[in-house]
Amino acid sequence: MDMMESTETASGTAEKPAYKVAPPGFTPEQWEAFERDGFLLFENALTPDECREYIDVIDEVARTQFNWQPGKTLAPWSGVAHLHPKLTELIDHPRHVGYAYDLYGELLKLHNSQFFLRPPGKSGTKWHNDGARAVPYTVYAPFLPIQLKVAYWLTDLPRPNMGNMMVAPGSHKKQYFEAYTKPMDVEGQMPVCVPAGTMMLMNGNLFHTVLDNDSDVTRYNFFYTYCPSWVCEADRLNCDEAWLKTLTREQRIIMRSYKNPYDRTKPPAEDFPLYLDRETGLDHDPDADLDVPRGVRKRRVGPEKWSK
């Protein structure tokens, strides 16, 4: 469902840009489990054909952009969303962007975009969480994650030691973790053993590591990570202007490629609304003060609504 709102162009003619309704996000049961464990798994989020297509895209980009060699781990840190249309579409893909919008609302931003190829061999990864380390995000935001990671697992991981992620359920609520920076077992640890096509949502505060890969399969996956607009990007400073012009309105906003750094805290008025409310179809809360300009008008994020 799209809703329209009139705007005035420089020539004075009226245009009616379409604002999209926010895609589906957390159900109450999913939010409860995410809060408890720090992650959610959704099997069959991708079909086998979609997994194959994404693997082919990763192979193409890895070969042409990064001179990747089989048998070598590849984890680009400079962003991949701009490197192929199939990677660009993941910026705001309706499979997952509604979950991120539930957390960050009108200030939703793509923090970084990555893919990983983990061939057979030792991992070398130690227990860690993501984001700020010496002073973790939880010092400032103890209730909501500053990072929401969305992973798509593109190869079957039926058992441990296939380059799987290992997580410590519930550890996102801790600022100190005995195994941090160490290669050791943790009580309650859980290897992510899932079929290809599984989508994972993960609180960036969750402590995790990566197991060795003693299989003959290279593990493929994506990580698209989201945050509030006022947190610094992890994979870019500014986006290429020509590429930005190829994006949809929502994708361009979510990339938050502002020339004025202050816009990250107070985005320009034309970037509101990012989405319309999925229940009401409105660009404001039902009890909002409509005398307040839309670009600075408070809108509740998901957890604020659910806690009422």
Which secondary structure elements does this structure contain, and how are they paired or packed?
Blueprint: E1 2-4, E2 7-8, E3 14-15, E4 18-20, H1 28-37, E5 39-42, H2 48-65, H3 85-88, H4 97-104, E6 108-118, H5 137-140, E7 148-153, E8 165-167, E9 190-191, E10 198-203, E11 208-210, E12 219-228, H6 241-244, H7 249-255, H8 302-306
Antiparallel strand pairs: 1-4, 2-3, 5-10, 6-12, 7-10, 7-12, 8-9, 8-11
Descriptors for this entry?
globular; five-stranded antiparallel beta sheet; single chain; Jelly Rolls; alpha+beta; three-stranded antiparallel beta sheet; 308 residues; disordered N terminus
Describe what this molecule looks like in 3D:
By secondary structure, this protein is of the alpha+beta class. The chain has a single domain (26-260), classed as q2cbj1_9rhob like domain (Jelly Rolls, Sandwich), CATH 2.60.120.620. Helix content is 19%, strand content 18%. The chain has 8 helices and 12 strands. It has helices spanning 28-37, 48-65, 85-88, 97-104, 137-140, 241-244, 249-255, 302-306, and strands at residues 2-4, 7-8, 14-15, 18-20, 39-42, 108-118, 148-153, 165-167, 190-191, 198-203, 208-210, 219-228. The protein has a 5-stranded antiparallel beta sheet. It is globular, with a radius of gyration of 20 Å. It starts with a strand and ends with a helix. The model is unreliable at 1-11 (pLDDT under 50).
Short recap of the structure:
By secondary structure, this protein is α+β, with helices and mostly antiparallel strands. The chain has eight helices and twelve strands.
